[in-house]
Structure formats: C-alpha cells, structure tokens
Amino acid sequence: RLRFKDTRDNLSLVTEQVGINFSTLLQDQEIRLYNAMKMFDLPLLIRRSESQGRTADVQLALNQMLSTTSPFDFLMILTPKEVMLSATTLRTGNSELASEAAGFLLTPAKSDDASCQWHRGRDGDIYLVRDIYDTSPLTHCGRIVAHLKDDSLFSLGEQSRELEYTFLFFTPSGRAVEPE
Fold first, then answer.
1. What is the model's pTM?
2. E strand spans, the chain
3. Which of 87, 105, 132, 166 has the fewest CB atoms inside 10 Å of its own CB, making it the most exposed?
C-alpha cells in the first residue's frame, strides 16, 4: 500500500509540474512573438506603410523575424487596411499554411481582452494569433499569426513513452490535443 501511495503521489507531482511547464511554454512563445515584433518595430512600420502605401519595410521586418533560433517558421499579418503580408522559411506547403493562417486572422477574437489565441490547424499544426499594438500612442495596428516550427510544446509527451506514462492535453471543447 505504501508503494502505491508513493507512486500516486509522485505521479500527482509530475502531472502538476507538466501542467505548469506547458503553461509556461505557451507564455514563453507569446512573449517571444511580442519581443520579435518590438525588436523590429513592426507596429511603427505598419503605421507608416498604412499612411505611405509602401509595404517593403514591413515585409523585410517579417522576413527578419524568422531565423534559425525562432520558434516560428511562418508569419502572416493583417493590417487595419486589410493588407495581408507573409514570410516563411518553409520550402513547401506554403499555400495550405497561408490559407489556414488567413482564416485564423480573419476570425474575430472570442473576447475583447484576448490579445493571444492558440489554434490547432486541420493537420494538427499549432498557430499563435495575437493583436499588434503600437505603445506610443496606444494604437491597434493589426493582427499577426505565427506557425510553430515543431511540437516543442509536447516534448515531455514524447519522452513519456520511455517513462511508461503519458499526459493528455485537451481543448476547451474536450478534444484531445496530440503531437504528430
């Protein structure tokens, strides 16, 4: 009985830690996207492009936001004047990704205070959608969608096969989210 209780207690602690790690990973990706937008001054570039009708600087910033260390391999923005621009490091599959990303950008947020939304694509791909704001003065400059490179959010689930247990994450609708 003691062994069973110890095992149950240990699994309870591991499960709690996995939940904390998963939540932290989500927040980290949201912050990384925000920091990349601020580093390349994306909100200011969008505002300038809206007034001057030039998108080259915005396109350059999107391209520079994708690097070998970036967790994203595809970005798409929607400006207030409904101009869509995208950047990718992928060699194939861009049209499907772009179509799905555009759908997420055009779908209104479910609540006014949700600046970040996570979506799972038809093929199981993970997308992060967030609003773009310029902070001085506070101005809404559009929306951005980012496609995650891999299933780094599920890395512990991959290792769990060796540890003889697994963790399931569920969407709000009750559908299990699984790594590919």
1. 0.77
2. 72-78, 84-88, 116-120, 126-135, 138-148, 169-170, 176-177
3. 166
Residue where the block lists tokens 């890395």: 155
Residue 134 sits at φ, ψ, to 5 deg, of -90, 135
Distance CA 162, CA 152 (A): 17
Say if CB 128 and CB 148 are below 8 A apart.
yes
Distances (CA, A) of 101 to 16, 88, 94, 104, 159: 32, 12, 10, 5, 30
Secondary structure E strands in 24-180: 72-78, 84-88, 116-120, 126-135, 138-148, 169-170, 176-177
Question: pLDDT tens digits for 47-78?
Answer: 999 888 789 999 999 999 998 888 899 999 99
Percent of the chain with pLDDT strictly greater than 70: 76
